[in-house]
Structures
1.
Amino acid sequence: MCGIIGYIGKANAVDIILSGLKKLEYRGYDSAGIAVIVDRKVHIRRSVGKLCNLYLNFRERPISANIGIGHTRWATHGKPSEENAHPHTDYTKSIVIVHNGIIENYAKLRDELQNNGHEFKSETDTEVVAHLIKEHYKNNLLYAVQKTLIKIEGSYAFGIICKEEPDKIICARQDAPLIIGVGKDENFIASDVAALLPHTRDMIFLENGDIAEVTVDKIIVKDVKNNMRSVKIKSVECDAVQSEKSGYKHFMLKEIFEQPSTIENTLNGRIYPNEGRVFIEEVKIKEEYIKKDISNICVVACGTAYYAGLVSKILFEEFAKIPTEVDIASEFRYREPILNEKTLVIVISQSGETADTLAALRLAKNKGCQTLAICNVIESSISRESVHVIYTCCGPEIGVASTKTFTGQLTALYILALDWAFKRGKLTKESLKIYLKELEGIPLKIRLFLEDVKPIKIVAKMLAHKKIFLYLGRYLNYPIALEGALKLKEISYIHAEGYAAGEMKHGPIALIDASVPVVVVAVAGRVYKKIISNIEEARARGGVIIAVASDSNEEIKNKSDYVIYVPKTSEFISPIMTIIPLQLLAYYISVFLGCDVDQPRNLAKSVTVE
Ligand code: F6R
């Protein structure tokens, strides 16, 4: 979590850092700060709360500088406060540092430093690093950082400046993303591409163990032992406009409405329904492996991406007949999963930086498994470390609650499952054509649905004051119930739980009374009749039923308090459709409650700490 940025050049570092922090705010937003050096004097400004407070600070007392570093924080060690906000310094205010990550041995280092007379001002793990660098500093910042890095354990992306050497930024990376933006007579560092795009497309993606010295016109990358490391400058294709709200009130709403296009983008060039063919250029897994060698699939992810994984279990097993298990990355990495070279481990991650998912990927590689990542962020750690990658072509997702990348992940998983089902002889060409046509048609159906979202606004307004929501689904739509509940709780802070509808009578039904809305995904298909019985059971206990049903289902009107109709689809593809009203329901409830939709409390977009 946390976002870091740095600038050195002829422009005003403060302006560049502030606008970069705005782009990085999704990574954490409980406090922010900037340090600059002017005439060999360090100036640090920090403020608690959203970035606007820091903006205000600089508007009231402007400052101009040609070198600086900035940080937007998601607290790990120490509460959100001005003292704990970055940048941090050593006690002489000579070394200044911003950090994304966690220093695991900070307590021991802190004790040692305190015994040597160092006084600490914050509760953070980061401050220890500033003091340690100072201990090693002998007029060579790079050397002092190299010596310090040998002593610290944990994950980090650092940006470091020093009052005695105001012509350089030192940065280093270990298990946290860090990119250098290469400019003309100016250079940048940042946690992600979006913060650099307004300035340059030429970027160096640092690897673990890299330490870079960045001056106005030179970038040198070394390791802790002072060996040179080879680096490549890559030109990044990405549309900076995608990171704007484009007239929508919130990024989340914009991203929900983008889904017809983002699904199209993820399908584009990969499916050929008329020929009954799937072609995923990036995935070079041998057909032989998919046909014969593979013994099982293990899908590993966190949060929303995990729920996409749950849908894929049904697809891989039912269509491709490959035994599939799905696990939460933070669990997977600490149990002893049975893995071997016949296991394909699929990791799913929007950001490509989720610490637990990355660790799961590494574990799988160590065990000799084939690995495939489904990822949205190009050049992220997961996409670079996985042997195969399928990108969900959704563009930047800024709203903290995932929406378009969830349907992007589902889309990618559908294509894979269908392709492998065909290759394994479990699906005929004719059936493949039908399914691919269904997939191709889904963006249009979502587009039609999004033309009138009034019914959802009405339900949201009626129910926004409720304290508990239940979400029910079965079969392919059980994960959608889980995801719908997650959307509501994360952006409205209402307690919401998703259940497999058939499980209700084994306990959770006790929760239902007249005050509890029960959102039921009840689209046409093989479990429709079963879910109707579950609706009856919930109604009998007084629950307020909100059904998500297929267009022109009249029967359901008599069984529900509210019906949200979605265009008819086959049951197979329905999760990509049914999640849309649930995203919107959560969104409008959050808006009615006056919550911060795009930056909900306690969360961050990219969870780079475990
Ligand atoms: C919820 C949400 C999170 C993420 C999870 C994994 O809306 O966004 O649950 O899905 O933190 O993140 P990625 O996909 O970046 O690995």
Note: The chain has three domains: 3-238, 251-450, 454-593.
2.
Amino acid sequence: MRTPIIAGNWKLFKKCCDAQDFVAKLIPLVQKTSDVEIVIAPVFTVLSTVKQAIAGSNIKLSAQDCFWEEEGAFTGEISPGMLVDAGCSHVIIGHSERRQYFGETDETVNRKIKAAIAAGLTVLFCIGETLAERETDKTFEVLRTQVENGLAGLARDDLAKVVIAYEPVWAIGTGKTATDEQAQVAHAFIRKVVGELFTVQLAEAIRILYGGSVKPENVRGLMNQPDIDGALVGGASLKADSFGAIVNYKA
Ligand code: PGA
């Protein structure tokens, strides 16, 4: 049984007060939800505020990125061990916005994934094709390459600390969601590739989230697909009501 995960990626939004407000509103909405893992990913500067606000609740804390070195002369970077120290259990790595605007490559993503796992974090590893890639029938090729390169050199045991997030770039922040069928086909393919790289058993156990314009209105159809194990939510995670409704998609 794969426990579903609903993760909110706040991106570059919310300072301390907004974050505290959000958590205060979210807790009563989700405190009875026991069969879904709930994760929120604020900006670095409010991690410790959110850590205190979620204390004793069923909400977990994630960062949106990290560096691969633990310490050293790397101005501006944050290490996986520092995220653990700040209360994080999860970290998003390889988000398409990092790849698109900040020069992340499959290689840097791979280094970050390994370092994060070594520090004990669970990685939300993002992959996904662009519109041009989908329109030229390269979706499977792109996904295969991203999975192979991103997970290169990982041991079988490491896979328990990896969650894959399939986020078609054309669906992020555009209001355009992949159809339930499009998402299912991609997820089944990703699971097959993981099976080829590791074992079929590990592929069956790994959780694969869908991301890209997930909303309270479309989450149920996506979650009904056999290979979709949760959602990575951007825009709709910024309001406690809509995020709470997504978390409670079964209700
Ligand atoms: P969105 O973002 O839900 O606003 O499309 C998803 C993401 O980028 O993780």
Note: The chain has eleven helices and eight strands.
